Amino acid sequence: MTGGELPTGGSALGGPALGGPAGLVVLSGVHAVKHAVRFGAELESVVSADPDAALALLATVAPDVVLSVRPVPPAEIVRLAGAPVDLVGLARRPRDVPAGPGPAVLLDNPRHLGNLGAVVRVAAGFGARAVLSTGTVDPWHPTVVRAAAGLHWAVPVRRVTDVPSGLIAFDADGEDLRGVPIPDDATLAFGSERHGLSAAVRARAARVVAIPIRDRVSSYNLATSVAVALYAWTARTGAR
After folding, report:
1. What is the pairing mode between strands 43-48 and 70-71?
2. Residue 201: φ, ψ to 5°
3. DSSP alpha helices (H): ranges in the chain?
4. 182 with 232: CB under 8 angstroms?
5. Measuring CA to CA, which residue among 149, 157, 21, 9 is closest to residue 85?
6. Which terminal Cβ of the chain has fewer Cβ within 10 Å, N or C?
7. For residue 236, which of 176, 175, 170, 182 has the smallest C-alpha distance?
8. CB-CB neighbours of 43 under 10 Å
9. Each residue of 168-215: pLDDT tens digit?
């Protein structure tokens, strides 16, 4: 289904990433670290400028997660994460993340790192089968991982070069989502934030579906659109 994968670079457009050693994923903040650990992340190191405060916060929001935290200067936190954060984890990329029971999500050439991360978070919450993306943006960029709150370990996330056929594509001129059943094995395609679906992806669609929207409101945020579509799937199937 996924076709050929593109190699992952360090940055959105293939340049160097923020500070972690090559081959390691930077987890910025307590929430990213806790989610990654809950879903089996192998942490090489966990550091903080104030380990006591970080561990106290972790005990409050995730008492099930027990970590050893090494103190480092604040400048090292900024070097790793790009900003002052309470905790930074460095983790190995997962070799195999179990697929969820729901539809896969295909993002057609997304451009905004935060939006891409928010989609991963939504997809993990609903139990999507995978989050796939085309284009040059690295779905494992540290900014994406941070926006996803470390949930790359909860749903398969990868770039693809081949787009599957039989898509359910989302576009404003499609048929009303409320009348369209979404099967568990569907792949739901969403266009980029500015340009929408490409002609190549749209040509692979079996159906084109529109999310209802109020007059004079131009569009939904990408992650909101994905959330609405996956909610429509759960509402019909009773999936949890």
Report:
1. parallel
2. -75, -40
3. 30-38, 51-61, 74-81, 113-126, 142-147, 199-202, 222-237
4. yes
5. 149
6. C
7. 182
8. 17
9. 999 988 999 999 999 999 999 999 877 789 999 999 999 999 999 999
